[in-house]
Specification:
The complex is a heterodimer of chains A (about 300) and B (about 230). With about 300 residues, chain A is of the alpha/beta class. Chain A has 2 domains: about 110 residues, Rossmann fold; about 190 residues, Rossmann fold. Chain A has 13 helices and 8 strands. In chain A, helix 8 links the parallel strand 5 and strand 6. Chain B folds into 2 domains: about 90 residues, 2-Layer Sandwich (Nucleotidyltransferase, domain 5); about 140 residues, ATPase, nucleotide binding domain (Nucleotidyltransferase, domain 5, 2-Layer Sandwich), CATH 3.30.420. The chains are: A alpha/beta (about 300), B alpha/beta (about 230).
Chain lengths: ~300, ~230
């Protein structure tokens, strides 16, 4: 099965239906010790270098250029210039489902056409398991850190639906005390131990914005997935995303919001809007290179917990 | 009971004895001098090293600042704590805070670069600022490149005093971007003792500014008050 690199959310059901297997190239970053040259955002800069130097083995790459970031658009082109067969995928800013459908047909052509349409249903069912797990997490039945590790891997379903299914079924239910209920929005943290650190400071992350996008979209054919994925919030106007967030935060009884942003990322520019529009205490964190959560960030988390206890 | 704030550059100790506030300040590396003969059960710590020093309880600088400032100004809206390595802006009304640390341009370290360049003590910057006749515009947002820009202003004929005033304005501008709209703003932290920088910040903000009598010991006081 051809291994297809993806740089952000690309419907994995379509990739599997084309008899290929997705591999989210971001999954290599938090554990990486690379110091990339000429970087803005470390996420894209590191996958770019790893792909050019063939440290991540893929046959083709799908770069999400519209609805993700311009850093990915440029770094993706550098990978393409190094000889990797690359496709650029664009989400519509205005949510135009027909436009997205045309993008998905082009993607299907790039992947060699749909050969196994049953995969759409199989992946949809797997995502339902992910949604159940997410619900159990915010109801205090599953450890938030363990749930995150599964949810973040749902962008590519660990390149193997059976492996992903087993990972979900390995999670044990418990009664977890959720003291300060926190939503983590923005880019996923580049630090591999971030969720564990937050948990050790009594901050229970019961919502991870982007991983939730990974599991909430689906459909049984290209027409259906176009009409669902066109509401992928990261690709839409800020107002759309904030309206969606407000409902999720309320549903999950959130006490405070951590807005994780990345150095040289447009999400930093969105921070002032997020702070203004969301009626919750907001902690903004800006990360840069991967590794362990730095002490300065631990201080912010600790201070945030104190702030939540005051409110 | 003592409040002990061991920060990135200095250590501060506060006690309240018979209603009278007493304090000592030394360098961070000499923090032990402040707790000589004191049982760790008597220490409430804060600052970067709060968990590395003996303590009965510890609290972050953000919470300590709120308690410390309220001792002097009970109804303040926003606290700006300008420390050696970072600047913290705490919006008490919204229970929010921001800390800058990716760039030295809004921290005490930035003014240390300036003082080191002129081979003067940090405390002299404020006095020299008062003698400036003109204020050059220094735009660079990076602390290191602002020094290069400062040197080019000296080459262009501005005096040392004027360039220092320009640097204070560049520093204040950087910090002002972090401060939300508010009526009552308290300034704390060692850097606030620099009257030139405070003047530049007042010029930019045009709000009611409150500064406690000894702005450097507020977090140590706040740690003590937090636990009392």
């Amino acid at each position: 099965m051809s291994k297809i690199g993806i740089t952000a959310l690309v419907p994995p059901e379509l990739i599997f239906a084309c008899d290929c297997s997705p591999l989210d190239v971001n999954n290599f970053i938090p554990e990486s010790r690379k110091y990339p040259r000429n970087k803005l955002c470390a996420w894209t800069a590191i996958w770019k270098e790893m792909l050019i130097q063939k440290e991540i083995r893929i046959e083709s790459l799908i770069v999400v250029a519209g609805g993700d970031c311009h850093n990915a658009l440029v770094d993706g082109q550098k990978v393409a210039m190094s000889g990797t067969r690359t496709h650029f995928f664009f989400y519509p800013f205005d949510g135009d489902a027909e436009y997205l459908e045309s993008q998905l047909w082009r993607l299907s052509d790039f992947l060699g056409d749909i050969k196994n349409p049953d995969k759409f249903k199989e992946i949809t069912n797997l995502k339902k398991l992910g949604q159940d797990m997410d619900k159990k997490r915010y109801n205090g039945k599953i450890n938030p850190g363990e749930a995150f590790r599964i949810l973040i891997s749902s962008s590519d379903l660990q390149s193997d639906p059976d492996k992903f299914r087993k990972a979900i079924s390995s999670i044990r239910e418990n009664n977890i005390e959720l003291n300060s209920r926190v939503a983590l929005i923005g880019v996923p943290p580049i630090y591999h131990d971030f969720h564990d650190v937050a948990q050790s400071l009594d901050l229970a992350i019961v919502f991870d914005e982007l991983p939730y996008e990974f599991i909430r979209h689906g459909g049984n054919n290209i027409r259906e997935i176009a009409r669902d994925y066109c509401n992928y919030t990261f690709a839409r106007p800020l107002e759309f995303r904030i309206n969606f967030l407000q409902k999720e935060l309320e549903k999950r009884n959130i006490d405070g919001v951590i807005h994780y942003t990345q150095f040289a990322c447009h999400h930093m520019l969105e921070d002032e809007v997020i702070r203004k529009e969301l009626d919750y205490p907001v902690l903004t964190i800006q990360g840069d290179l991967p590794g362990k959560t730095p002490e300065q960030i631990k201080l912010r988390l600790e201070a945030f917990r104190e702030a939540l206890l005051r409110s | 009971m003592i409040g002990l704030d061991v920060g990135s550059t200095s250590a501060k100790r506060v006690t309240i004895e018979k209603g009278e506030l007493k304090y000592n300040i030394t360098s961070s590396q000499n923090w032990r001098d402040l707790v000589d003969g004191i049982d760790c059960d008597e220490i409430i710590s804060t600052g970067y090293f709060r968990n590395s020093v003996p303590h009965r309880a510890s609290v972050t600088e953000i919470t300590a600042a709120i308690h410390g400032v309220r001792h002097y100004f009970p109804d303040i809206d926003v606290i700006v704590d300008i420390g050696g390595q970072d600047t913290k802006v705490i919006d008490i009304r919204k229970n929010n805070f921001m800390i800058n640390d990716k760039c030295s341009a809004g921290t005490g370290a930035f003014l240390e670069f300036v003082a080191n360049y002129f081979r003067i003590e940090l405390v002299e910057l404020g006095r020299l600022h008062m003698n400036a006749k003109r204020i050059p515009d220094i735009n660079n947002t990076c602390g290191v490149f602002a020094i290069s820009e400062m040197i080019s202003q000296l080459v262009a004929g501005y005096s040392k005093e004027e360039v220092i005033a320009g640097m204070h304005h560049a520093f204040a501008r950087r910090i002002s971007f972090m401060i939300p709209d508010a009526e009552k703003i308290a300034l704390i932290g060692g850097t606030v003792k620099n009257e030139g920088m405070v003047m530049a910040l007042k010029d930019l903000l045009r709000k009611e500014i409150f500064i406690p009598p000894e702005p450097q010991i507020i977090n140590a006081l706040g740690a003590l008050k937090y636990y009392s």
